[in-house]
Design goal:
single chain; about 120 residues; mainly beta; OB fold (Dihydrolipoamide Acetyltransferase, E2P); 2 domains; 11 strands; about 40% strand; Biotin-requiring enzyme; Single_hybrid_motif; Biotin_lipoyl
Length: about 120
Amino acid sequence: MKTYEVTVNNKVYQVSVEEVNEADSKNKAIALDNENKKEEPVKTPVLSGIEVKAPMPGTIISVLVQLGETIKAGQVLCVLEAMKMENEIVAPEDGTIQEVMVSKGMAVEAGASLVRL
């Protein structure tokens, strides 16, 4: 095993490197790959649809859609007031409203889910 000093962003790190032959390396890689396949986590179902999120913190001043409504791309879903400006939150694509997570007067943070298509 060899020890080296490596400088990254003006910080010095000591690292140890072990020399291995190519055949052992390939066998270890295959064994690790097989272990990973056995221990693959169970996948949980993902809700279908797209969540439309708030681009900034603010207050919802109107919700223009309701559950089950069919909408078109670019259609205004709700209006968010932020810094005394009204921001129309629009649908990114055609779809059907699966869930409305906000109501008039509700305060939201940036990144909060508003509507799911």
